[in-house]
Amino acid sequence: MKRVATLLSAAIALFAISVMAQARPDFSGRWAIEPEPSATAPGARGGGERGGGRMGDMGSGWGSSISIAQDANRLTVEYAFFARGDMQPPLKFVYALDGSETKNSVMMGRGIQLQTSRTAWEGDKLIITTVHGFENPANGQTMNVEVKRTLSLESPTLLIVETMRSGVLGGPPSTTRTVYRKN
Fold first, then answer.
1. If you count Cβ atoms within 10 Å of the first and of the last residue's Cβ in the chain, which end, N or C, has fewer?
2. Rounded to whole angstroms, how far apart are CA atoms 53 and 66?
3. How far is Cα 59 from Cα 57, in angstroms, rounded to an integer?
4. Nearest in space to 60 (alpha carbons), one of 79, 36, 45
5. 12 or 144: whose pLDDT is higher?
6. β-pair partners for 155
7. At 10, which helix (H) or strand (E)?
8. What is the pLDDT of residue 157?
9. Which pLDDT does position 47 carry in this prediction?
10. Which fold has domain 26-182?
């Protein structure tokens, strides 16, 4: 009887671990921005990204077409930033899913820009908080700006990326919502 109880406890524990693992969505795939309905359609808002975006908004900051790879330990986001003629590889960002700090470097403008990120799970949403350092043009001192992206799946084929940016140099903070459809 004791052996049956032990086996039953082990089975329940394995089931609970399996259910918890399934609760975290897999964002893997190729995704493209889902355009808003036409401005001429009844009830349409017009513009670029859904739910708060307009043409010219920074959106998710990741581009209109992205590839995401995810395993148990990390999430990798990749997208083309440069034109083909620039002969530059796509930008690639890797984030540790255990909340540990990750650093990504991007060669842009006047040199390498370092980004430091941490992730956190909030239910079925993944929150990626990234700090970007930059030089204040007024005094030359280093300042930081924080970008927080919250990823969630509205359905297996719709990825929502809500991006909150802290205010910079006295400017107001901003939030955008970008909807991607799986290709």
1. N
2. 18
3. 5
4. 79
5. 144
6. 158
7. helix 2-23
8. 97
9. 34
10. Lipocalin (2.40.128)
The residue length of the chain stands at 183
Contact between 165 and 147 under an 8 Å Cβ cutoff? The reply is yes
Q: How far are the Cα atoms of 26, 153, 154, 166 from residue 123, in angstroms, in the given order?
A: 13, 12, 14, 24
Question: How are beta strands 29-33 and 125-135 bridged, if at all?
Answer: unpaired
Beta strands in 47-157 (DSSP E): 65-70, 74-79, 91-96, 102-108, 111-122, 125-135, 142-155
Helix or strand run (H / E) with residue 175: strand 174-182
Residue 157 or residue 135, greater confidence: 157
Pairing of strands 174-182, 29-33: antiparallel
Q: What is the pLDDT of residues 72-117, one digit of tens each?
A: 999 999 998 877 666 677 889 999 999 999 999 887 766 788 899 9
Amino acid identity of residue 80, one-letter, is: A
Residue 173 to residue 56: CA distance in whole angstroms = 16
3-class secondary-structure state, position 13: helix
Whole-number Å distance between alpha carbons of 118 and 131: 9
Supply φ then ψ for residue 3, to 5 degrees. Answer: -65, -40
Cα→Cα distances 98→126, 128, 151, 178, Å: 11, 11, 16, 25
CA atoms within a 13 Å half-sphere pointing along the CA-CB vector of 4: 1
pLDDT value of position 13: 55
Q: What is the pTM of this model?
A: 0.75
